Recover the amino acids of this structure.
């Protein structure tokens, strides 16, 4: 393999990872903006989040196409193969995060028509800020090849679950006290569930980053708090 071929191959791999990082930045913005739309009852911002989702879909398709081409033509081994497959897997998780952010934005468009429920919205905001912070941290771990940071995100997976379970109980209390709030509370519950699932995808990405860097799977059981809605 010539020096030129090696450089060309390395450039392709770096481009693939850069595009994955760029997609991560866009997914993070989608989640943050969907949360802001809920908090501010901002219809225009919510509509923008919904319309931007197609860009994430296109980025995932492009990353997958480039990864498959790189594997077929370059036949990467060991660490390079893990980086290539990792980019494809992370892109898939990011696309799902984008879908969940779009769902949150759609729910916020419905909530605008209802009376404000400020205490519950604040609880949603607190949970959302935690999820956004976890997503940012795991994406920083990916771009910086920081395995310790990825492990830190993975080990705090149950924090989001605890927020979700607390919010679930709070929503039930509201619905039981005043049946007129049931519709709005149901939408807020779906928003909270979408945020919880985004947190799960951040944990998935942490596992991918760990494997990409070390070549080893996470051997411990993923920390989870019992889901009150699972029964």
């Amino acid at each position: 393999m010539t020096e030129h071929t090696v450089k060309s191959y390395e450039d392709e791999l770096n481009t693939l990872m850069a595009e994955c990082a760029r997609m991560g930045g866009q997914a993070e913005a989608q989640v943050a903006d969907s949360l802001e739309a809920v908090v501010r009852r901002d219809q225009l911002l919510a509509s923008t989040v919904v319309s931007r989702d197609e860009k994430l879909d296109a980025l995932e398709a492009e990353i997958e196409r480039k990864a498959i081409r790189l594997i077929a033509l370059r036949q990467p081994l060991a660490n390079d193969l893990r980086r290539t497959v990792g980019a494809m897997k992370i892109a898939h998780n990011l696309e799902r995060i984008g879908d969940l952010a779009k769902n949150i934005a759609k729910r916020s468009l419905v909530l605008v028509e209802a009376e404000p429920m400020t205490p519950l919205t604040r609880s949603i905001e607190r949970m959302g800020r935690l999820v956004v912070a976890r997503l940012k941290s795991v994406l920083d771990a990916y771009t910086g090849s920081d395995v310790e940071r990825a492990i830190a995100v993975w080990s705090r997976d149950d924090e989001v679950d605890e927020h979700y379970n607390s919010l679930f109980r709070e929503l039930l209390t509201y619905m039981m006290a005043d049946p007129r709030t049931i519709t709005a509370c149901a939408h807020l519950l779906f928003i909270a569930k979408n945020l919880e699932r985004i947190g799960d995808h951040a944990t998935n990405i942490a596992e991918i980053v760990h494997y990409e860097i070390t070549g080893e799977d996470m051997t411990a059981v993923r920390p989870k708090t019992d889901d009150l809605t699972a029964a």
User: Anything to note?
Assistant: The radius of gyration is 20 Å. The mean pLDDT is 92.
